[in-house]
Amino acid sequence: MRVVLARLLLLFATLLAIASWDFPARAQGDDPAAAAAPRDVGLVVQPASAQLPAAPADFQRLEGGWVTFELPSSVHDRVAPLLAEANAFRARLAVQLGQPVLEHVLVRVARDPEQLTALAPLGAPPPAYASAVAYPALSLAILSLQAPRTWEATDLVELLRHELMHIALTDAVAGHHVPRWFDEGLAIHESGELWAARVQTLWQASLSRTLVTFSELDRGFAADSGEVSLAYAESADVVRFLMRDDDRARFGSLVQRVRAGTPFDRALGDAYDTDLHKLEFEWREEVSHRFGLLPLVTGGGVLWALIVGLSVLAWVKRRRRARAKLAQWAREEAELDAAEAAARERLEREKAIPDDAEDVPPHVRPGLPVVEHEGRWYTLH
User: Along the 381 residues of the chain, how does pLDDT read in single tens digits?
Assistant: First the structure.
């Protein structure tokens, strides 16, 4: 009895600690849409006539074959490693989706959310809460170095994976319709973002029996639905369930069927040899085993609670690192600006020296040690 009581107290303390932390899913402010939807997909109705603003004058291009990065010259060292990340992620997606994807993609990197909007196609701005946005119809992704509202440094690798996943899925299904929960769930699952927040959300929904049905998931993404966080967390977990090792071939079959024009619900049922309701039942059964109250009280769940608590601490450390990274970037920017200013000043001095520099008195020629004697100048050697 004492052991069970101790476990209950530990569980209560862990849940209380989790509830008190400011998870990333709420880090964007009070807007529920902003809280759980840090990325989004931009809609371009007529891709052929879309206009993309020219990159600013201080931008440079990094060519990586199938992917091109446009970025501020001052952040070259931060963005260059993304080339290798993009190549590895593209190869992984080709295996998971069962076909080559991402034939050519343009990735623009913005300094902040304001520049994120300025780099977007005309007439198709990103949502105000977005740290990044994908335009699959244009094979375009735009990432911001700073998050809106918090102005903290973003995780460029997570942003890149998320947006490339949106574009790759559109490629894989040849533009055919897939539910939003599948699109967003796949992007979140593959990027690995907001893990602790998703665990918390699914845990609470499982215990309170408020999980959303598959047929209602898409409605949960509406800004006024009150279920945005749950819709994102649940969608990512359903995708994880569909991509289990035993079902990996079935997942590829699902994508191929949609690409061939089969409506998504029917393609899902055919690929997994079941109907949507049975598949949902199986998923709910798995969730109940993972997040149910009984396992938490009677044994291994206590360890699970501790794991969640540790994940919270890991997120806190990650947030501190983001702030430190932002401060480091600011110092690098200042040093680069100072170096550029010194270079410009040196260039101006050199331009001021006439071409016949040999006739110029040594004392006006930079870099030469001189001394005056009886009205004449002599160079010291």
Answer: 554 454 544 444 444 444 443 333 333 333 433 333 334 788 787 888 899 999 999 999 999 999 999 999 999 999 999 999 999 999 999 999 989 999 999 999 999 999 999 999 999 999 888 899 999 999 999 999 999 888 888 999 999 999 999 999 999 999 999 999 999 999 999 998 888 888 888 888 888 888 999 888 888 777 655 678 888 999 999 999 999 888 888 999 999 999 999 999 999 999 999 888 899 999 999 998 887 654 555 444 454 555 555 555 555 665 666 566 555 555 555 655 666 667 677 777 766 655 555 555 555 555 556 556 666 656 555
What's the one-letter identity of residue 231? A
Q: DSSP characters for 51-62?
A: --PPPPTTEEEE
Question: Where are the strands (E) in the chain, listed by range?
Answer: 39-41, 59-64, 67-72, 105-110, 132-135, 140-144, 370-373, 376-379
Does the pTM surpass 0.85? The reply is: no
Instruction: Please give the C-alpha separations between residue 350 and each of 296, 336, 357, in angstroms, as whole numbers.
Output: 74, 21, 11
Q: How many DSSP H helices and E strands does the chain contain?
A: 14, 8
